[in-house]
Amino acid sequence: MKTTSEIKQYHNTVNGKMITGSSGNTMNSIDPSTGKVWAKIPLSTKDDVETTVTSARKAYHSWSSLSARDRGDYLRRIGDLISQHGEELLKLETRNNGWVLDEYQYLSIVLKQLWYDAAGAASLVGSQGKTAQLGSGSFGYTLREPLGVVLAILPWNAPLFTFTIKAAYALAAGNTVVIKPSEYAAVASLRYGEILSEILPPGVINVISGLGSEIGDTLVSHKEINKVSLTGSKATAEAITLASAGVPKPLIFELGGKSPNIVFEDADIEKAVNGVISAIFTPNAGQICAAGSRILIQRSIFDEMLSRMKERMSNPDTTKFGDTLDTANTMGPVANLPQYNKVRSYIDLGLEEGGEIVFGGRVGGDVLLPNNPEFSDGYWVEPTLFKVDSNSLRICQEEIFGPVAVVIPFDTEEEALEIANDTSYGLAAGVWTSNLGRAHRMIEKIESGNVWVNTYSRVGADLPFGGFKDSGYGTDSILEYTREKACVIELG
Question: Which family does it belong to (predicted)?
Answer without folding.
Answer: Belongs to the aldehyde dehydrogenase family.
